[in-house]
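**Archive record**
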Amino acid sequence: MRFLAAGLLLCVLLVGCSENAAGSSESVETTSSTAPDDTLHSPSAPPVPVEVPVGEVGTMFESTTGLVRAAPTPFESWSQISPNTIAIHFVTGTPECYGAEVEVTESDTEVVVALRTGTLPEAADKVCIMVAVYGTMQMTLQSPLGDRAIVNAA
């Protein structure tokens, strides 16, 4: 009987906290002096990657074709290594089981990077641990980056 009462009390507390948190976020939004940017909160819009210093790198990945269950993966940040070389930084699984594939499309105003991550073909039948790894992949551009924007295609 005590466990039932404790469980009921826990449920009531959780519901109360959830409603309080929702109320708090609404009051923050209504008191904000800036207009909300719908593109930042749209579930279909990829995140806008930010530039980070060159020294902030993760586990290096090479672009790998033939990934199993590959899915578009947004990258969080990027670094300029040289005028024609950039590195993107993303979260994926361990390099023993997971890989990444990249496709770059360049225009005069932007560099669009389409990153896909998935299971390596040789690990398709393995049991892989689910550990998040901060990954980095370098790519050479056809022309110097200049003032072009780096854009997530995912």
